[in-house]
Amino acid sequence: MKPADNTHSQGNIGVMLLETTPDLFKGLLAHPQTFGCDVALDTLEGIWAEQILSASPEHTGSFIAAARRLEDAGADLLLTNCGYSIAYQADVQKKVSVPAAQSSLLLLPLLNYSFRHAERSGY
């Protein structure tokens, strides 16, 4: 990924992936044609499904390291391919200067605000 060029409206996205072979169906985060901009992928070293489900603080370093590598590569936005990454949202956001959205669970407050009280989402 080339460094961010602030003269255009298109940004660069950095995606942190669990240590699995990501599905590459069009529309998924790891597919190169999902977004209309440059996308860089980085693996969360040592983070498999078992580790992400534990939400252990001992894995925070892997998230921060991947986030910093992607930011250094020019990412303007950081994403992950696993909603359970929400456990690391605050720690990652404190250590990088670009927005990080670790989980689609971040959308729940917006969705709840969008519905009438009787139709709230399930949290």
Textual characterization of the structure:
The structure is a single chain. With 123 residues, the protein is α/β, with parallel strands linked by helices. Helix content is 27%, strand content 13%. The protein contains 4 helices and 4 strands. A 4-stranded parallel sheet has the order 2-1-3-4, covered by helices on one side. β3, α3 and β4 (100-101) form a beta-alpha-beta unit. The longest helix is centred in the middle third of the chain and has 13 residues, at 60-72. It is globular and about 40 Å long. The N and C termini lie far apart (38 Å). The model is unreliable at 2-9 (pLDDT under 50).
Percent of residues in helical segments? 25-40%
User: Helix count, per DSSP?
Assistant: 4
Principal-axis shape equals: globular
Distance between the termini: 38 Å
Percent strand equals 5-15%
How many DSSP E strands?
A: 4
List the helices and strands and how they pair.
Blueprint: E1 13-17, E2 39-43, H1 49-54, H2 60-72, E3 77-80, H3 89-95, E4 100-101, H4 108-114
Parallel strand pairs: 1-2, 1-3, 3-4
Task: Explain briefly what this protein structure is.
The protein is an alpha/beta fold. The chain is about 25% helix and about 15% strand.
Give the tags:
alpha/beta; disordered N terminus; 4 strands; 123 residues; single chain
